[in-house]
Amino acid sequence: MIKDVRLQIREFAAPVAQKLGLSKVSDFADVILLSFVFFSVVHYRLSPTVSGALFPVSYGKAGKRARNNWDIRVASFVHAIIIIFLAGRCLTLPSLNENRAFGWDENAGFVIAVATGYFIWDTLESIIHFSDIGFVFHGISCLLIYGFAFTPFVPYYGVRFLFWELSTVFLNIHWFLDKTGKTGSTLQLVNGIVLIATFFFVRCLWGAKMSYDFFVTLNGVYDQVSTPYVIIYGGGNVLLQGLNWFWFAKMIAALTKRFQGKPNGHKNVNGNGVGKAKI
Predict the structure, then answer these.
(1) In terms of pLDDT, which residue wins out, 263 or 148?
(2) Considering the chain, what is the average pLDDT of its residues?
């Protein structure tokens, strides 16, 4: 039954994939759809249920918009944990290492499919619950980059750029500490230091190196790549790197301001009814 449904989804996606020139996408259409559904369920069902039970004060008494932001963070956190593990298994795939531009491997395809489904969800959320144009640009850029990887095109770099999500883990922990009354605490300070370190090394330094290597690879196959791909991948790399440095600067400024002087009296509001949630 499940196998039949998966085959039907792939057969339905095949003409669209052919028309778009994404030869590999129909083989993973079911994974993309399942990924999108999974993160939507985490956002709209799992997080509200679990968060409401574990944090009846911090989450339960928050406003509708604040609860939605919390649920988005939970989905983001879950994705980061999953995708880092999956991407790590693809770093030594011979077919990708031998051909960085057009090499393909089914394991990498699965990881890229999970990421694509997530970025469909992420892009829609960034637009529907708009808060910052940077988040919208980030979602659209990532969706295009990972979606067009099914051509196939540069999955070697696709799985490596997913390691940016390592900083997302600590970013979300930092945010949750804020919302559960731990602002300015020692735990948040330690997490903040780890956050800054991972963001700088994984996104700014590792990301810059990967972007440089990508442009070297692109230059070597420039005559084999259509102009839209050059624009999407070249422009996307520049945009995402620019956002990384912009957010890094904002992060430094926010953390510096937060930990100047003594922290405010923070109370444990993880559900025992003590303290007041800061939203």
Answers:
(1) 148
(2) 90
Pair of tokens at residue 253: 């400024």
261 pLDDT tier (thresholds 50, 70, 90): low
All residues at 6 or more sequence positions from 79 whose CB lies less than 8 Å from its CB, including other chains: 39, 118, 165, 168
What average pLDDT does range 82-89 have in this prediction? 97
208 lies in some domain: yes
Handedness of CA 134, 214, 77, 173 (dihedral sign): negative
DSSP letters spanning 184-235: T-HHHHHHHHHHHHHIIIIIIIHHHHHHHHHHHHHHHTGGGS-HHHIIIIIH
Residue 37 structural domain: 2-258
Neighbours of 19 (CB within 10 A): 8
Single-letter residue type at 22: L
Query: Is 30:116 a contact under the CB 8 Å cutoff?
Result: no
- Judge whether 15 lies within some domain: yes
Question: What's the number of domains the chain is made of?
Answer: 1
Alpha carbon separation from 186 to 107, 144, 189, 269, 270 (Å, rounded) = 40, 40, 5, 16, 17
Could you tell me the two tokens for 139?
């979602």
Q: Are 91 and 159 in contact (CB under 8 A)?
A: yes
Token reading at 255: 């953390």
Does residue 55 sit within a domain?
Answer: yes
- pLDDT at residue 217 is higher than 70: yes
The answer, yes or no, to whether residue 262 has pLDDT greater than 90, is no
Q: Tell me the two tokens of residue 143.
A: 């969706």
Q: How far apart are CA 71 and CA 68, in angstroms?
A: 5
Q: Any idea which residue has 């980061």 for tokens?
A: 80
Instruction: Kindly state whether residue 187 falls inside one of the protein's structural domains.
Output: yes
Predicted model pTM: 0.89
Q: Which residues contact 196 (CB under 8 A, 6 or more apart)?
A: 251, 252, 255
